[in-house]
Amino acid sequence: MVKLLLIDDDTDLCELLGEYLTQQGFTVSMCHNGQDGLDAAKREAYDLILLDVMLPKLDGFEVLKALRQHILTPVIMLTAKGDDFDRIFGLELGADDYIPKPFNHRELVARIRAITRRIEFCQQPTLQTQPLQVGAVAMELMTRTVTVNGKAVVVTGTEFEILHLLLQKPGQIISKQDISVQVLGRRLAPFDRSIDMHVSNLRKKLQCGEANPIQTVRGIGYVLTIGDHA
C-alpha cells in the first residue's frame, strides 16, 4: 500500500483530502507545519510527499531544500493557482511535480499514481539486471542509481525517468509532450516549464567534458548525444 505524507496547515483540507485518499487505497499521514513535516519525512519512509508552499515554522521551499540533502522521496508541491514563481522555484529545488490549488481530487490521485507507478515498475524482479549505458552515463534500474564515468550522481525520481527515456533512444529526439505524458502522467499545459526545469537540473548533474550529453532541439524536445552510441 502506498504511504503518503501530507504537509499542509489547512486542517480542514487535510481532513477531507486524507479521507478521500484513504478511500482510494492510500495510507495517509499528516503534519500541519513545515518543521513537523520535515521531522516526519526524516523519521519514516514514505512513497510520496504532498507539500504545501505556505507553511508555518518552515515554508515548503525550506522543507524541500532540507529534504533533498538526504532524501529523494518524490514530492508534489501544492502551489497557489497562477503562481509561476512558486512552481519554477519548487522544481529547481527538486520537486517532482506541482499541482495548483484549488485542485481536482481525481487529478491529484492521477498525479500520485503516475509517479508511484514508475517506482513500482522499476522494482519488478523481472527487469534487466545489466546497467543501461550510453557513453559515460549509466543507470541501474533495480537500484535506481545513475553514474557518470563511474561516479555516482544523485538524481530525483523524475530526473531518473527522463534520463531513462533518453538512454533508451540515444540520438533520437523525444518531444517535451511525450516526456511529460510518460514521466508525469499528464499533458503539458501552455507555458508549462516543468520538463524544461527537470532537464536543466539533470544536465547540470550529467556534465561530462565540454559537451553536455542532453541537447535541446528548439521548439520540439531533447536528444541524448553522447559520443558513439554503438
UniProtKB/TrEMBL annotation:
<dbReference type="Pfam" id="PF00072">
    <property type="entry name" value="Response_reg"/>
</dbReference>
<keyword id="KW-0804">Transcription</keyword>
<dbReference type="Pfam" id="PF00486">
    <property type="entry name" value="Trans_reg_C"/>
</dbReference>
<dbReference type="InterPro" id="IPR011006">
    <property type="entry name" value="CheY-like_superfamily"/>
</dbReference>
<dbReference type="InterPro" id="IPR039420">
    <property type="entry name" value="WalR-like"/>
</dbReference>
<dbReference type="InterPro" id="IPR036388">
    <property type="entry name" value="WH-like_DNA-bd_sf"/>
</dbReference>
<keyword id="KW-0902">Two-component regulatory system</keyword>
<keyword id="KW-0963">Cytoplasm</keyword>
<keyword id="KW-0238">DNA-binding</keyword>
<dbReference type="InterPro" id="IPR001867">
    <property type="entry name" value="OmpR/PhoB-type_DNA-bd"/>
</dbReference>
<protein>
    <submittedName>
        <fullName>Response regulator</fullName>
    </submittedName>
</protein>
<dbReference type="InterPro" id="IPR016032">
    <property type="entry name" value="Sig_transdc_resp-reg_C-effctor"/>
</dbReference>
<feature type="modified residue" description="4-aspartylphosphate">
    <location>
        <position position="52"/>
    </location>
</feature>
<feature type="DNA-binding region" description="OmpR/PhoB-type">
    <location>
        <begin position="129"/>
        <end position="226"/>
    </location>
</feature>
<keyword id="KW-0597">Phosphoprotein</keyword>
<keyword id="KW-0805">Transcription regulation</keyword>
<dbReference type="InterPro" id="IPR001789">
    <property type="entry name" value="Sig_transdc_resp-reg_receiver"/>
</dbReference>
<feature type="domain" description="Response regulatory">
    <location>
        <begin position="3"/>
        <end position="116"/>
    </location>
</feature>
<dbReference type="InterPro" id="IPR058124">
    <property type="entry name" value="CpxR-like_REC"/>
</dbReference>
<feature type="domain" description="OmpR/PhoB-type">
    <location>
        <begin position="129"/>
        <end position="226"/>
    </location>
</feature>
